[in-house]
Structures are given as C-alpha cells and as structure tokens.
Amino acid sequence: MFGALVVVYMLYGITARGEAIREKEQMKGRWKVLIGMIIGVVISLITLCTVAIILFFIFISGGSAEIVKDSNKYEETIAGYHNLHSGLITFPEIIPQSARDIDFYSYYREPLGAPVVEIFLQCTYNEEDYHAELQRLEHAQKTFKYGTKVTNLMKEEDGRYPYTAYIAIDGFENSYEYAMLTGERQITYIHTAYKESGDLKKISTSFIPSDFDSRMYELNEAEAFNIYLEDITVVDGEIWGWYCDY
Predict the structure, then answer these.
(1) Are 25 and 130 in a shared domain?
(2) Is the pTM of this model over 0.85?
(3) Measured between alpha carbons, how far is 117 from 119 in angstroms, rounded to an integer?
C-alpha cells in the first residue's frame, strides 16, 4: 500500500513538473509573441513616420522640378503652367517658323502654392516677324475682366535693365517678367519667381536688372510694377483693395 502511494506521489510530482514546464514554455511563447508584436508596431510606426516626413518634405519643397529644354515643346509647356503668378504677356504664344537660334529653358517647381520659376526664351527673327513682335510688345495691354483699367507694358530703354526692355513684372512678390532686345532681330524673354540671381540655372546675370535681388526684398510692393494688378491702395503701409488677374 505504502509503495503504491509512493508511486502515485512520484507520478503526481512528475506530472506537476511537466505542467510547470509546459506553463513555463507557454509563457515564454506568449512573451515571444508579445515582443514580436511590439517590435512590429515600432517598425510600423517608424515606417509611417518616415513616409510622413518624406511626403511632408515633398509638399514643402514641391518635389522635383519640371525642366523642359526642347523648344518644340514651348507652346504646350507655357500653356500647361496654370498656377504661374504671371500671364506671360511678354512671351509669344507661338514661336514663328522663321525664328532661328532658338534657346528655350523652363524650370517649374511648386512648393506650398508659390511656384519657383525660371523661364528663358531667346529667338532671332526675320525682318518681318521681328517688327511684328516689336509692335506686339509696344501695344500689349492688360484689360481686366471686372474693371476698366487698361495697362501697357512698361518700357525701359536706358536704366537698370541691360537692354531695352518691355516689362510686365518688375520685382513684385519676388517675380520678374520682361522681354529685351538683345541683338540684331533677337529678343530674349524672361520670367522668374522666387529665385535669387545666384539660384538661376539658365539665365545669365548679363540678362537681369542691376538690382535684381535687392528690388525683390527691399522695395515696397505698392511701388513695384505689375501689369496684372488692377488697383493698389496702401493703408498704414499695408496693401489693400488690389485685384490680380493673371
């Protein structure tokens, strides 16, 4: 009888130890699963944060710039930039068949709705098309949809600009737009926005006004010429009541 009790006790002890070992193994398994889940959550959070930072950077910087150098794509490129803060009134709608020595460059990037722009077009025309283009620039006007004001391009023949220039934007809101007579039947068209002279990729400093940088930052906006502005009223140094029609 005693021997049987001893055997039963031993069997119970073995069973108990087995249960304890199994419970310990199960507990280890649970901890492994829990640790794995925690690691998975941490990795997921890191991945999401990284993606969010990348997307935020793209949103802030505007992503990669769109650059076009093929003059055959001039018309579609110019027509495709709907968010420009310019109507490109100085630029020709099309490049005439007679034009030669055509040099075209367009840089466009749009961070936070404020396009960073550098557009350069240079053409040499035949006699007929050159005079037609001069006439267009001389008589180019901006008429507003909801007003009666009509504005011509500002012409500067001897001053801050290196050549005779027909100007649409002269430093207003960090932007320039103008056409210059740069050679024999040659016209150079330029539009920049939010680019200092040191940031220009294509446009030579020999084609920009002498105060290109300082005018953008030091000039009161109310004093800067912009053909696309219908009216400006300055109250206590602040601009009120102007309407912009690009």
Answers:
(1) no
(2) no
(3) 6
Same domain (yes/no): 213, 165: yes
User: For residue 70, what are the contacts with CB-CB under 8 A and spacing of at least 6?
Assistant: 104
Sort 94 into a burial class: Cβ within 10 Å, 0-12 / 13-18 / 19+: exposed
Residues 98, 198 share a domain:
yes
Tell me the two tokens of residue 28. 């280890």
- Cα dihedral 177, 180, 182, 183 sign: positive
- Same domain for 150 and 49, yes or no, is no
The reply to whether 246 falls in a domain is: no
Alpha-carbon span 91 to 110, nearest angstrom: 21
Range(s) of the domain holding residue 148: 66-240
Q: Scanning the structure block, which residue is given the tokens 């290196």?
A: 162
Q: Give the number of other CB atoms < 10 A from CB of residue 106.
A: 23
Q: Kindly state whether residue 115 falls inside one of the protein's structural domains.
A: yes
Q: Which two tokens stand for residue 77?
A: 């490129």
Q: Counting Cβ atoms within 10 Å, is residue 15 exposed (0-12), middle (13-18) or buried (19+)?
A: exposed
Residuewise pLDDT in 10s, the chain (246 residues): 555 544 445 545 555 565 666 666 667 667 767 676 777 676 766 666 454 433 344 444 446 889 999 999 999 999 888 788 899 999 999 999 999 999 999 999 988 768 999 999 999 999 999 999 999 999 998 887 666 677 899 999 888 999 999 999 999 888 999 999 999 999 999 999 999 999 999 999 999 999 999 887 776 666 678 898 876 666 666 666 666 777
Same-domain status, 57 and 72: no
Number of domains in the chain: 2
